[in-house]
Amino acid sequence: MAHSTERRAAVLRKLEPPNAVPVRQLAKEEGISAATLHAWRRDARSQGRLLPDADAGPEGWTSRDKFAAVLETAALNEADLAAYCRQRGLYPEQIQAWRAACEQANDWERASSQRLGQATRDEKKRVKALERDLARKEKALAEAAALLVLRKNAAAIWGDGEDA
After folding, report:
1. For residue range 143-156, what is the model confidence (pLDDT) as tens digits?
2. Distance between CA atoms of residues 15 and 9, nearest Å
3. For the chain, what are the domain ranges?
4. Greatest Cα pair distance in the chain
5. What is the pTM of this model?
């Protein structure tokens, strides 16, 4: 059965925050199949509308929903942002955090290469310290071996001293 665009819009508004109704509950209330509601929500999301899952709070929103919220609030002043947040059950701090994450999204490669470079430098320092320690221990071992050889040779030449 075909639904009018007005009915569709009214049903989709019930899926919007802050009073987002779960799809299953809305399907029962409206007499529309859950599959149809999911398709409507998917279509609305593809058009840029913010329709997160009702079961998940703002921290459970998908990246796409968070990005949509950031885009919607990009040009808002502080008062409009507060009104937007109240309407959707959000806090301005969440929007700011999501905006920061979006701004850093494409820096992950640079940041990961910096972390990798730092880890490589740290490993090189560690290897150098271990090599120094190993060289010191090898030198001490060589000295101890030389002393044992000298002691053995001296004992062979002059005797043990215990025999006298």
Report:
1. 999 999 999 999 99
2. 10
3. 5-90
4. 120
5. 0.40
Helix (H) or strand (E) holding 32: none
Q: Which residue has the tokens 């271990």?
A: 130
Asked if 68 contacts 95 with a C-beta cutoff of 8 angstroms, the reply is no
Do residues 18 and 87 lie in contact, with contact meaning Cβ atoms separated by under 8 Å? yes
In one-letter notation, the amino acid at residue 153 is: N
Please tell me the distance from the alpha carbon of residue 85 to that of residue 100, in angstroms, as a whole number: 17
Q: Which tens digit of pLDDT belongs to each residue from 39-53?
A: 888 888 777 676 665
Counting beta carbons within 10 angstroms of the beta carbon of residue 92, is it exposed (0 to 12), middle (13 to 18) or buried (19 or more)? Answer: middle
Identify the H or E element spanning 58: none
Where residue 161 falls (left for φ over 0; alpha for ψ -120 to 50; beta otherwise) is left
